[in-house]
User: Fold Peptide/nickel transport system substrate-binding protein from Micromonospora polyrhachis.
Amino acid sequence: MRAAVRRIAAPLLVLPLLAGCFASTEPDSEAADRRLRVAISFVPIKGFSLHSDDSVRLSQIGVVEGLTRLDAEGAVQPALATEWTRTDELSWRFTLRKATFHDGTPVTAPAVVTALTRADQATPRLRVLTGHRLTATAEADDTVTVRTDVADPMLPQRLASPALSVLAPKAYAATDRVDPIRTGTGPFTLTGVEGSQRATLDRFDDYWDGRAQASGVDVSFIPDGTARANALRTGEVDVVDTIPVAQAAVLAPENLRQVPTTRTIGLYLNTKRGVFADPAVRAAARTAVETGPLVEGVYESRADAGQGLFGPALSWAAGKRIAPQRTAPAKVPVGTRITLATYTNRAELPETATVLQQQLERAGFVVQQDVREYSQLEPDALAGTFDALVLSRSAGQETGDPISQLASDFTCAGSYNLAKLCDRTVDDLVSKAAALDDPAARQDAIMRAEAAILGTDAVVPLVHERIIQGVAAGIQGVLLDPREQRLIGPGTRAG
Assistant:
């Protein structure tokens, strides 16, 4: 692994994670007149409605915030709440800071109650709330108590999820969506959206953590990785959230930032219907997969071979990993047909699918690929249309703790259970891990749950990914976040 790290570090400029995260000094006149131009790889899939994956985009570009936030190590930090305390097994009390929504109204306890109540009622259930119900109560104008139906020692981390951001009350006027236009609390105000193509942000002068150093942000949503890299190279944009591995070589090294991530690429197999409903056939697919050609070929040694659901970015996982007990593979009848899907937003995924197709076909499968842009693919993926899916997932992205991902992705009631796994042993282990307060005991329990999940062959870990971001010359203060929730902050500026 050390050699792989050296190969990556040589051509790339590696900066401290979340560099400039809390920079909030007053901008000079030149920086104040300069708007930032940012290219994002994922288009908004639900019109920027907060209770969807669009919340991550809103967080990346500095529009929304929750009561808490996570630092580079996954530790919880104050955001709209300045402090919190656990008052009993089910309840936490949060003290709010003095802050203002983009519409000029103050952040108050009743506003927070409205936001958290709507989040708890969202349909489909938010992934970060899988297995949890929230009840928020205003105790005073600046104090909120949040009560859960089951003990949740990770509630402050959970409230850092972008999907649990707090918006002004008028954002919740409609019953079918939550409108973030001029209703957030971040350093930039969302003022306009042009479909799935562009968004316009202006600086919010009353931001509680200090006036942003850029006057605004012009966001372009560009799913094609080559187009994003070209936009940076030709000077059309200042910041690109993700540069494909294949494009890194054509950009100047000083324009590249490597971000260690908690992200793992996996092959998810449909356990509910089709050929992979048979555990022995899933085992045959797993044994057909070779990760070496993916790491060395597709990722050009800028990734690590998949060891489990959690890669090197969660450094504690390797020493606690448990070997799964797996089903013996069946001999696949020649001509067994499967659909293998993935998406184009991450340029390496279609290449990965092509390599997997070759490997699976050598094992007897006949593979038909279905490759689309993510917003077009997601509804069918959630519906279980595909036999297999190549997916990039970040462990602990929303809470800094992997339990929420395991619950949403691999339990019977999981809201993002693309493998359609329903295994009572897995559910029991995830539930037990979620209830533990002690960090070491919780980690041990998480790894027992990981072993049980891998034992079902619902997912085959492929590679542990590293993200490469593009930053134009003279741009400072880009937030290099391993969870990919923050990109543009108050200290991001030109010059």
User: Anything to note?
Assistant: The chain has a mean pLDDT of 90. The chain has 15 helices and 19 strands.
